[in-house]
Design a protein that fits this description.
Rossmann fold; two-stranded antiparallel sheet; 230 residues; alpha/beta
């Protein structure tokens, strides 16, 4: 069986990675995942969730530059707050300081698009400005890739779009993970909100591996009573 080497950058708790073993089984490949996370507590919990993965505590941005040639597929989710509409509104309203958008996002997109020979995905929020490089918008996220994504990545309702009294419980249920296990310095709800829907993560890897089948749509023929599958 072919070994498919995957680099999972800014790995957090592996929301995108949760269903990847199913993708590998369906594709008939052996998945070798290297996860890079700067927060040691998140890295520890990630390793508990995915004990077979190689987990590295390091700067993901620098790791990408040093090691991108070693992988078949790269997923990167750089920090999003400086690009987010919520941060923009907070800055305009005086609730937080005005900051430069973090251009590491675009550095990684350019590096991967010009130098990487495999398939890649760079994921981030839909920003408060017009994106500097065209992306594929799905839900509240933008994806920069070198392959076409399906129109629908997940049919699950994204509970992170809601702010309810029991928000953390809803996010735990949605991601099938108890975020209260985290004992680090970051706000737990922020970590939970930022995690990628695992069904979206699986659909994207399925597409990269060539095993995703776009659902056929049945339409009525304009010329007779028959139907056509497209």
């Amino acid at each position: 069986m072919k070994t498919y080497k995957v680099l999972n950058l800014y790995a957090c708790l592996g929301g995108n990675r949760y269903k990847w073993d199913e993708s590998a089984k369906e594709a008939g490949v052996i998945l070798e995942v290297t996860a890079v996370e700067l927060d040691p507590e998140l890295a520890r919990l990630y390793k508990e969730r995915f004990p077979n993965d190689i987990v590295i505590v390091a700067d993901a941005h620098q790791y990408l530059l040093d090691h991108y040639k070693e992988f078949d597929f790269i997923w990167s989710s750089p920090p999003c707050p400086s690009h987010s509409k919520a941060r923009f509104w907070g800055s305009k309203g005086g609730q937080c300081d005005v900051v430069y958008p973090d251009m590491m996002l675009y550095q990684e997109i350019i590096l991967l698009s010009k130098f990487f020979k495999g398939r890649y995905v760079v994921e981030n929020v839909n920003p408060y400005y017009e994106p500097l490089i065209e992306a594929q918008k799905r839900g509240r996220h933008l994806y920069w890739t070198n392959f076409q994504l399906p129109d629908i990545l997940s049919k699950r309702f994204d509970v992170a779009t809601e702010r309810k009294k029991n928000e953390l419980n809803n996010l735990c249920d949605f991601h099938d993970y108890d975020f209260r296990l985290y004992k680090g310095d970051q706000p737990i709800v922020k970590i939970a909100r930022n995690l990628v829907d695992y069904e979206a993560g699986k659909t994207i890897l399925d597409t990269a591996l060539g095993i995703y089948n776009q659902p056929k749509r049945v339409i009525q023929s304009l010329f007779d009573e028959s139907t056509i599958e497209i």
